[in-house]
Write a structure and sequence with these properties.
single chain, alpha/beta, two-stranded antiparallel sheet, 9 helices, 8 strands, 40% helix
């Protein structure tokens, strides 16, 4: 990565979804607990389910069922979760405060979403919230052979949008996003309000913000380093 790159050089912003753009914690937890209830298990606290988010649906369900769950059980539970979540993913999910304002203030910079949530859910969620028009591309955990922190999605977006590494920034709430950026050789910005933000303490990004409305200022050279 070119460490001489300045915030004002950023031309492409690649956003995580859950925990960065949208607060989806409750709907994810309710859907996971619906699966557990179907399987005769007690519900888990919302915060516990939230701690399992970030590596895709299969990992989420495996963690929610425990290490003793068989592959067949996990596969059945994943299918049930997807059916449940498809119907209820917008019951309580909303953009975090300031997200729309921040996206409106980013000017002509190119924007995309790269998440480990399945792509059709991601597209439907952003469309349902009236936010899909902000992004040139929306890629999910099944858009490529590998999920984040593999850098394939970042490489694809840089190629699709014809933007070099030194002009690309990943914005996310967890170590997965930071590691994705490192693996791709691009700058990273962490948000402190998201589901996985505690992991940023041990895997710090290049920049850290408390509110997405700080992002336009950061890109104009008025932000703060992590």
């Amino acid at each position: 990565m070119n460490r001489e790159a300045k915030p004002g050089d950023i031309q492409l912003l690649i956003f995580d979804l859950d925990g960065t753009l949208v607060d989806s914690e409750l709907d994810l937890a309710l859907s996971v607990n619906a699966v557990r209830r179907e399987m005769g298990l007690d519900p888990l606290p919302v915060a516990q389910v939230a701690s399992y988010v970030g590596q895709g649906v299969s990992a989420l369900i495996q963690r929610a069922l425990g290490q003793d769950a068989t592959r067949e059980t996990v596969e059945r539970a994943v299918a049930l979760f997807l059916r449940t979540y498809r119907e209820h993913m917008l019951d309580h999910t909303v953009p975090y405060p300031g997200v729309r304002e921040a996206l409106d203030q980013l000017g002509t910079r190119k924007r995309a979403v790269l998440t480990n949530k399945p792509v059709h859910f991601s597209q439907a969620m952003l469309a349902g919230l009236g936010m899909d028009q902000y992004f040139a591309y929306i890629y999910g955990g099944n858009s490529f052979e590998q999920k984040k922190p593999d850098p394939v999605g970042v490489f694809t977006l840089m190629r699709d949008l014809d933007v070099p590494r030194e002009a690309t920034l990943i914005v996310g709430d967890s170590d997965t996003d930071v590691l994705t950026g490192r693996n791709a050789g691009v700058r990273t910005c962490g948000v402190t309000y998201g589901i996985g933000s505690k992991s940023l303490e041990t895997t710090p990004p290049d920049w850290l913000i408390r509110d997405l409305r700080e992002l336009p200022a950061l890109l104009n050279g008025k932000g703060r380093s992590a």
